[in-house]
Amino acid sequence: MIALLRRDFRLAMRAGGGFGLGLAFFLIVVVLVPFGVGHDTALLAKIAPGILWLGALLSCLLSLDRILALDWEDGSLDLLAVSPIPMEAVVTIKALAHWATTGLPLTLVAPVFGVLLGLPEAGFYWLVISLLLGTPALSVIGTFGAALTVGIKRGGLLLSLLVLPLYVPTMIFGAELARRGAEGLATTTPLLMLAGITLGTIALLPFASAMVVRINLR
Amino acid sequence: MPELGKYADTVLSAYGVSLLLLVVLVLASMRASRKALKELEKVESRKNG
Amino acid sequence: MASIWEYANPVKFSRTVQVVLPWVSVGAAVALAVGLIWGFFFTPDDYRQGSTVKIIYLHVPAALMAINAWFMMLVTSLIWLIRRHHVSALAAKAAAPIGAVMTLIALITGAIWGQPMWGTWWEWDPRLTVFLILFLFYLGYIALWEAIDNPDTAADLTSVLCLVGSVFAVLSRYAVNFWNQGLHQGASLSLDKEENVADVFYFPLLVCIAGFVLLFVALVLLRTRTEIRRRRLKALIARERMA
Fold first, then answer.
1. Domain count, chain C
2. Reported pTM
């Protein structure tokens, strides 16, 4: 299992640069926003948590189809299916590797991009907390979407259509937590809800993803 | 025709759009059903004949 | 009365549909005609909303069916996953476009109604937002059916998507409630329909709801039969090629 994690991690770091690409995409989204809404600093500071969350979510989406597609194409997914590791563990590890190569770096650079958008200082702490808590859910849900579309050629667009509605609760509570943190409001409720969603998806969704992968391998 | 007052456009457009959508849905479903039946009959007659 | 599982047999199902469908269709047409004509021509205007109150006869039944269609898909998906009855999976597939159209009607009539009443076409009110999200779920579900060639794989995958989607749809509902309260403290634009609906509006509304339910049933039966025919067609063509 550790070997699988290490292998996935190395693949994501190396092949095709999915790792740097997500971060670059995140940067571009953040840079484009002021061009779109104007350079009014007060306005930017107000919408900064939402933009950063949206940017992180979209960058996450960008690399979802890599989670399973490559293993599907070269047949290593079939090998994993007959290996002693249960499929539930395989998809969990895939989600973990995806998170470690997209969600985690996105969380770490988000404060830097927050500076670009004039995020108030109080907001940095809550931004990082909210992303740290929320991005694992994005990876796990994304793995489910990737599992659904793995057998479909050019399923990237379909994957987005399937996954984005599932991202709604995470996005709402994550962005709300970051926004409330930035404005100095009470943060307990969105914090608990976000943590609940993340833990719930981590606990339950791998079973659905594994079931879907097995169906696709049939 | 009932007196709809100043909201006539609102009410009529709501009814118009909804009924249009429903009619399109019903017609599309019926057409698909007929088409499937016709093709099925063609293939079955080929099988038996 | 035979067991309901007998209708899992496609031939039996098709034969029953042949008998039942005309009755259900006529029932739907009569109920819709009576309900809508009653509502449109013979009910008074509301003292606050004027004649726009007549939109209720489309808006509320469509919204009800939008949710019930998803619920029916959830049940039939579960039946497919557990008991592997093909008719059940096909019924779920048949219901999805109907549900999507119902959601669209609810959204559009809501927007048209909201314009004079709230002074805006769209408001990020929890109910409105949830219906928009529901519409996206319908689109994703339909798209997944279309994208997969193998019918059994498609049925399995869409069923799982329907189950997971249901959980997330309910989750979204509560998330959206929380989110909007976070924006406007205590201010609610949503008029509670049940509270201020008087009997004059209530009875034609009931007839309209009955009409929408019957229409939904008729359409599901019709479309499921279409799917069965298509499936049989595919099987026959495949057999011909083999021969």
1. 1
2. 0.88
